[in-house]
Amino acid sequence: MRGRQRVSSREYMTAYDKDESSVRLLNGKPSWRKSLRHVLAASLCSFLFGYHLGVVNETLESISLDLGFSGNTMAEGLVVSICLGGAFVGSLFSGWIADGVGRKRAFQLCALPMITGAAMSATTKSLWGMLLGRLFVGTGMGLGPPVAALYVTEVSPPTVRGTFGSLTQIATCLGLMGALLVGLPAKEIVGWWRICFWISVIPAATLAFAMELCAESPHWLFKRGRRTEAEAEFEKLLGVIHVKPAITELSKSERGDEPDTVKLQELLYGRHSKVMFIGSTLFALQQLSGINAVFYFSSTIFKSFGVPSDLANTLVGICNLSGSVIAMILMDKLGRKVLLLWSFLGMAVSLGLQVIAASSFASGSAAMYLSAGGILMFVLTFSLGAGPVPSLLLSEILPGRIRAKAMAICMAVHWVMNFFVGLLFLRLLEQIGAQLLYTIFASFCMLAVIFVKKNVVETKGKSLQEIEIAHLPQELT
Fold first, then answer.
1. DSSP letter, residue 257
2. Which residues have C-beta within 8 Å of that of residue 127, sequence separation ≥ 6?
3. pTM over the 0.90 mark
4. For a designed S-S bond to 83, which of 138, 171, 302, 388 qualifies (C-beta 3.0 to 4.6 A apart)?
5. Helix (H), strand (E), coil (C) string for the chain
6. pLDDT tens for each residue of 415-465
7. Is 364 helix (H, G, I), strand (E, B) or coil?
């Protein structure tokens, strides 16, 4: 525009860094202790997500006998997968809900269908009641993870944002393992599966209550023009001496009381399309690696080698949890990009072991050890980066104005890919064989390595405002 001088992003960032470094030098880094309890409360949402994914694993046989559809593989598949349909719907609307009512209320709205659906599943006398209950639960499962990623990103100090983001992945692992352990007596005790569903009501009700005591996202409050409330929440999260610099930094990229005019066309074809492409592609490649096929069908693969399903599930759970804990430790030391690169590369190598196990070069015990070891290594390397990083990274690189709605669309891509991989895995395994199928999965992992290398920018230790300015230099005038 005439009368306005364009400033390069390099000059802007230099001035920005000088200003921020002086503030940080004066006040020091905010303590992570104040925000930890808020992040832990939000992680209950991820625990529920994992629990409901795993709750039918050990209980499906008992459910099918009690409700009269034993032997009907289509009905059994629907009980397992219908929640994915609900999750797609929930994730699609999660951004509009989170922006409309706030992050805290969105968590409570996530807990409501989980409580209702679990109660319906626990008390049903028919297959249709079970399916309806699982559908309700699925909407909560879809709504929760995007909101959790948003909330954790927006309330965490930059120096520990990666570590706190990993807590949600650990909570998911604990939910999965908890569901498997709780479900073990289902084959021995008649009706125990109903108890398994009732148990999930406890963390869901705790989530709804805990959110009343937690801070609202200051970013959301500021964006709605509620600056005073945003300052009060920053004080809860960072401490009083960090409120002013936090607000000052937030105002560099956010504009209080801005109209909510984000349209779908702007996200898909406008100036944010590149960052949307990065986020959606990461989620797509995450699922096309075949990870959820391994989670869904690892028991079947292990059972073919004579390994009991409970032992198989335990081993997979331990690898998943161990990798997530390691990722939490390394996230803010090595960075997001490094973990993603090595994670996808490790997954490709693991799938290579599966290919060898399925070939004529390996037979008998050698094939068993290669296949079982490949599965466990695959889960471990996935949980080191490809599991926890995409949702955290996306919530960091998306500008605050579009963050919630863009997350919703990218997570919808995740659920669509998840559904089709789970639906087609066994059929493809039967039609083209394990060797070719695992080669395809490994190819997607290598494609992910190339994509991350070329497109992902490191975000560790940077404030959300620094990241936003780095990704949108064309707006600086």
1. T
2. 67, 68, 69, 75, 79
3. no
4. 138
5. CCCCCCCCHHHHHHHHHHHHHHHHHHHCCCCCHHHHHHHHHHHHHHHHHHHHHHCCCCCHHHHHHHHCCCCCHHHHHHHHHHHHHHHHHHHHHHHHHHHHHCHHHHHHHHHHHHHHHHHHHHHCCCHHHHHHHHHHHHHHHHHHHHHHHHHHHHHCCHHHHHHHHHHHHHHHHHHHHHHHHHHHHHHCCCCHHHHHHHHCHHHHHHHHHHHHHCCCCHHHHHHCCCHHHHHHHHHHHHCHHHHHHHHHHHHCCCCCCCCCCCCHHHHHHCCCHHHHHHHHHHHHHHHHCCHHHHHHHHHHHHHCCCCCHHHHHHHHHHHHHHHHHHHHHHHHHHCHHHHHHHHHHHHHHHHHHHHHHHCCCCCCHHHHHHHHHHHHHHHHHHHHHHCCHHHHHHHHHCCCCCHHHHHHHHHHHHHHHHHHHHHHHHHHHHHHCHHHHHHHHHHHHHHHHHHHHHHCCCCCCCCHHHHHHHHCHHHCC
6. 888 878 877 777 787 788 878 888 999 999 999 999 999 988 888 877 777
7. coil
DSSP code of 58? T
Residue 217, H or E segment: none
Do the Cβ atoms of 90 and 142 come closer than 8 Å? Answer: yes
Cα 297 to Cα 319: distance, rounded to the nearest angstrom: 16
Residue 365: count other Cβ atoms within 10 Å of its Cβ.
9
CA distance linking residue 323 with residue 315, whole number of Å: 12
CA–CA distance from 52 to each of 59, 87, 383, 425 (Å)? Answer: 12, 11, 19, 21
Core vs surface per residue 80-98: b (16+ CB within 10 A) or e: bbbbbbbbbbbbbbbbebb
Residue ranges, the chain, pLDDT below 50: 1-27, 256-257, 259, 473-477
Closest CA to 192 of 59, 80, 76, 61: 59
Residue 471 pLDDT: 60
- Phi, then psi, of 461 in degrees rounded to 5: 75, -5
pLDDT, tens only, 316-358: 888 888 998 998 888 888 888 999 999 999 999 998 888 887 7
State the chain's mean pLDDT as an integer: 81
* Count of CB atoms situated within 10 Å of the CB of 209: 12
The pair of three-digit structure tokens given for residue 422, joined into one six-digit string: 């789970």
The pLDDT value recorded for residue 452 is: 92
Q: From residue 30, give the alpha-carbon distance in Å to each of 38, 155, 235.
A: 15, 12, 10
